[in-house]
Amino acid sequence: MDIDWAWIGDHRDTLTEHALIHLRLALLPVVFGLLISLPLGVLCRRFGWLYPPTLTIANVLYAIPSLALFMIFIQYTGLTASTVMIPLTLYSLSVLVPNVVDGLASVSEPVRQAATAMGFGPLRRLLRVELPIAVPIVIAGTRVAAVSSISLVAVGQLIGQGGLGYDIIRGYQLQFQTQIVAATVLIVLLALVTDALLVTLQRVLTPWARARGRAA
């Protein structure tokens, strides 16, 4: 397979623009998913009966093919970015909600009791003790959700909102392999860079883990 490097150089600005659009369409749903999953996960942890139906609904939504969800939402939001981002937000819940619940469950009871003994109320204990300890598990789920979202955004080009998906479909229409390969490589790079940034964020948010690693 021959790659037309001159075409890539000539279309560098266009590819960059499409990559930025792709990143926005992919990562905003993950942010929205976190904003929904954090309080929902806390509620599921506090009220155990709420977790099974919540997880079932999230998994059922995840089982619906992305194109089918796009077609459902297109009736309400039209050919807009929202038609792509709303389904991707719903997909992220099936990963993020369980990770938030598991992260909170990883906080041992003696730690909770110690925080309570120090005068921490429920909200302060949640924000200062439980959520920080849950960070590694929550970020692990966020990494999966982010990479999955970056991959799925390309499908959105079938309704005109796909970022680098445009180049994949356009390259297929023109039988121009260079455009397909360039877009695919950029999607993979976006996923790798995003994953690396999330790992870095985890290290920043858990300085005690770094200190423990240095001590070891």
Automatic annotation (TrEMBL):
Transmembrane segments: 20-43, 55-76, 129-160, 180-201
Residue stretches making up the ABC transmembrane type-1 domain: 19-198
GO cellular component: plasma membrane
InterPro entries: ABC_transp_perm/SBD (IPR051204), MetI-like (IPR000515), MetI-like_sf (IPR035906)
Membrane topology reported for the UniProt record: Multi-pass membrane protein
BP-aspect Gene Ontology terms: glycine betaine transport; transmembrane transport
Primary localisation category: membrane
Cellular location(s): Cell membrane; Membrane
Keywords noted in UniProt: Membrane, Transmembrane, Transmembrane helix, Transport
Similarity remark: Belongs to the binding-protein-dependent transport system permease family.
Record-given protein name: ABC transporter permease
Gene source species: Actinomadura chibensis
